[in-house]
Amino acid sequence: MEKETRKYWVYLIIAWCIHNLEEGITMSKWLEANGTHLMPAQFIPVSTLQQSMPVALIIATLLLIAIPILAIYKKWDNRLFGIVLGICLINAISHVLTSIVFAGYSPGVITGILINLPLSVFIIRRLFKYNLLKNFSWFHILAYGVIGLILSVSVIWVVAIFTGKSLF
């Protein structure tokens, strides 16, 4: 099953890169139209959020590529995979909720619904089926997913605050 787990990591990385590409292509225009209604806009100008978004997406993508490499070569167990899958699952759900709140498209919702949500659920179910998430439950996955998503969004805000402009 270890080979299959590696294969799932690869699928997840590809899905995450496609998802971040969708966000990267659409986020600036979406923030221009909707950014003032977001909580961070009370503290950070929308233009700063727009400029820092590419950096935040690159950081998120690089982390998702680095984590499985560390997990595979350091022989970490699959709970780390469960946490990452939880983040992907909650991220997809958050895009759906954002689309509902804003009554329209939100960056990442298409790949979130069509790729990340079903892929995350499929892989989690497979890991449970083969008992590869020892001492883990759906609750753990969702709880760590929420925590991970909050930390991810916080990184975006920190990048925006400290750069004040695009790094590119």
Radius of gyration: 16 Å
E-strand count: 0
Helix count? 5
Structural domain tally? 1
Please estimate the helix content. over 70%
The mean pLDDT is 80
What best-fitting shape do the alpha-carbon axes yield?
globular
Report the portion of residues in β strands.
under 5%
Are there runs of 5+ residues with pLDDT below 50, and where? none
State the distance separating the first and last CA atoms.
42 Å
Order of helices and strands: HHHHH
**Structural class estimated from helices and strands:** mainly alpha
Descriptive overview:
The longest helix is centred in the first third of the chain and has 33 residues, at 2-34. The protein has one domain. Helices cover 78% and strands 0% of the residues. It is mainly alpha-helical and 168 residues long. The protein has helices at 2-34, 46-73, 79-101, 109-129, 138-163. It contains 5 helices and no strands.
